[in-house]
Amino acid sequence: MYRVVLLESLLTLIAASGFYLFAGFHSAIAAFYGGLIAIVNAGLVVWYGHRACQLAGTDAGRSLRMVASCATQRLLYTALFFAAGMGPLKLEPLAMLATFILCQILVIIESSRR
């Protein structure tokens, strides 16, 4: 999963650079922010994965609660970050969503390779 975080970081920088070249500075910032949302998502999965490995075999119920907690936190953080980006920060939605979606497609591709 570390590979996914690294690849998402690289893809975010590439997307932000592309938006900078074709749409300007504000679009690049929005693209970077969208990629950052995806990286935080992947980071949560890595963190919960390590915690689950430490607890493996000790309590199945606790492991299941951790999975549910991870999914809930990922959903809430994603929604809050998007709301902050489109609301008070007034970032360009297209660049932010496009980079986030590209990073999520990367996660799907990397997951299917295993």
Please indicate the percent range of residues in DSSP E strands (runs of 2 or more).
Answer: under 5%
Helical residue percent band: over 70%
Molecular shape: elongated
In whole angstroms, how far apart are the ends?
11 Å
Number of domains: 1
Could you report the average pLDDT, rounded to the nearest whole number? Answer: 90
Report on the biggest sheet: none
List the helices and strands and how they pair.
Layout: H1 2-23, H2 25-55, H3 60-86, H4 93-112
Helix pairs in contact: 1-2, 1-4, 2-3, 2-4
What does this structure look like?
This protein is mostly helical and 114 residues long. The chain has one domain (2-112). It has four helices and no strands. The relative contact order is 0.19.
